[in-house]
Structures are given as structure tokens and as C-alpha cells.
Write a structure and sequence with these properties.
Layout lengths: L13 E5 L1 H4 L10 H10 L7 H16 L10 E5 L11
Antiparallel strand pairs: 1-2
Helix pairs in contact: 2-3
């Protein structure tokens, strides 16, 4: 959860935004997928993963956790990755 209205990402750092349908997805024992499982799915990725790799990892982790019965709520995710500022100039 981000408390600050401003966030600075260094080049190649990413931010994952998701709907609550991902963390609220219910497993076969009716417990929620939760933020800890979400973090675990992302932490298993290497530092050089792409935005698509992150989306695929989250999608697969939720699918496995729910046994494929994960459609009770909307599920959407967006990964924003900072790029290098090479060639850009800023003025104060």
C-alpha cells in the first residue's frame, strides 16, 4: 500500500497496480489469495523480469491457488516500469 501521493521509480523499477479481485480470490479452503501470496509470486521473479513476466506470474499464482475457480470478482493488473531518462532534459 502506498501512502505517499508521489512515488519515484529508478530506471527498471516497476510498480504493480491491481484490483482487489486478485488478493480477494478464494482458494479451495475459502481463504483469500492475499497480499503475502501476491508478494511471494513476484519475489520468485528475477530482477530482469518484464512487465509481462510479472502479470503472467500473478495470473498463474492466482489460477493455481484457486484451482481455476477464480472468477468471482474482476481481476486486473497493470505494471508500470520506469525507463531511463537518457536524452531527456528538464528545466527548473
Amino acid at each position: 500500500m502506498i501512502d505517499s501521493p508521489n512515488l519515484h521509480l529508478e530506471p527498471s523499477e516497476s510498480l504493480l497496480l491491481h484490483t482487489d479481485g486478485i488478493t480477494a480470490a478464494r482458494g479451495t479452503s475459502n481463504d483469500p489469495f492475499g497480499e503475502e501470496r501476491l508478494a511471494d509470486a513476484l519475489n520468485r521473479l528475477g530482477e530482469r523480469c518484464t512487465a509481462q513476466d510479472a502479470i503472467d506470474a500473478v495470473t498463474e499464482a492466482v489460477r493455481v491457488f484457486t484451482g481455476g475457480n477464480d472468477r468471482d470478482d474482476d481481476q486486473a493488473a497493470l505494471v508500470l516500469t520506469a525507463t531511463s531518462a537518457v536524452g531527456l532534459t528538464t528545466t527548473a
